[in-house]
Design a protein that fits this description.
Blueprint (H helix, E strand, L loop, with lengths): L6 E6 L2 E6 L38 E2 L6 E2 L6 E3 L10 E3 L1 H23 L1 E6 L12 E6 L5 E5 L8 E2 L3 E8 L3 E3 L7 E10 L2 E8 L5 H25 L1
Antiparallel strand pairs: 1-2, 3-4, 5-6, 7-8, 7-14, 8-9, 9-10, 11-12, 11-13, 13-14
Helix pairs in contact: 1-2
GO molecular function, one term: zinc ion binding
Organism: Octopus sinensis (East Asian common octopus)
Keywords: Metal-binding, Zinc, Zinc-finger
Length: 234
């Protein structure tokens, strides 16, 4: 019997996709396929306004679903946020957005999956000591959870889609929203749990500071994608 998180191959009008058996078990960074603008609603390209004809066919952008002429929709780009196997046709605007997002999938997502060591505390006013437990923090392979692993302590994972805010902690320990800062020392996550709004403070050990900075930067980029998804759903 197949599990909800198992993958399956599906064919849509835009191409072949590999998706989970249930949508709610998919990566929170994914976006759904758009509804295509019906062919009969437009006789002109929705960008350059050239009239469609026998030698100037309509083309749908696979990301936004709008209608374009071949010149305005000639790019074929990988679209991992929709799980397509092969590159798909896109308009110029969607091409630019997708290439920027693909930088996250090609680089930063791997950093989150590889994980990094952090001191983890629940009291945002507390600081870790030399005797504090170091957790290995990483994103689960299905991208749905933040996992905290330690040989001596057990800690609940965090559902990524429940994260409300990601704040960088800099010296002297006040959270700010700056991405590139040599004084970055950790991360403050705010998320919804069964007990309401919950905070977790993650501080980089001095021995893995550079790796921790890369992980925090990747987490910020991941949260931007989540935030954009929520805005589109509203």
């Amino acid at each position: 019997m197949a599990n909800a998180g198992d993958k399956r191959l599906v064919k849509s009008k835009s191409g072949l996709r590999i998706v989970t058996m249930r949508d709610d078990y998919g990566s929170p960074f994914l976006i759904p396929e758009p509804n295509w603008v019906p062919d009969n609603e437009y006789v002109h390209c929705m960008q350059c306004q050239v009239r469609f004809a026998l030698m100037n066919r309509r083309h749908h952008c696979r990301r936004c679903g709008r209608l374009f002429c071949s010149r305005c929709c000639e790019n074929k780009v990988a679209l991992p946020r929709m799980c397509f196997i092969d590159p798909v046709r896109m308009c110029g605007s969607c091409t630019k957005t997708t290439k920027q997002e693909n930088d996250f999938f090609d680089k930063h997502l791997k950093v989150l999956l590889n994980g990094c060591e952090f001191y983890v505390v629940d009291d945002i006013n507390s600081e870790p000591s030399d005797n504090s437990t170091i957790f290995f923090c990483k994103l689960s392979t299905d991208h749905r959870y933040l996992l905290y692993e330690s040989e001596t302590q057990v800690r609940d994972s965090i559902l990524v889609c429940k994260v409300d805010r990601v704040q960088v902690i800099t010296e002297p320990s006040s959270p700010v929203m700056e991405e590139e800062n040599t004084n970055v020392r950790g991360l403050l996550l705010t998320y919804d749990s069964e007990n309401g709004q919950t905070f977790v403070k993650m501080v980089i050990p001095s021995s893995t500071h550079k790796q921790g900075l890369n992980w925090i930067s990747a987490m910020q980029r991941a949260f931007r994608l989540l935030y954009e998804n929520r805005n589109q759903d509203q």
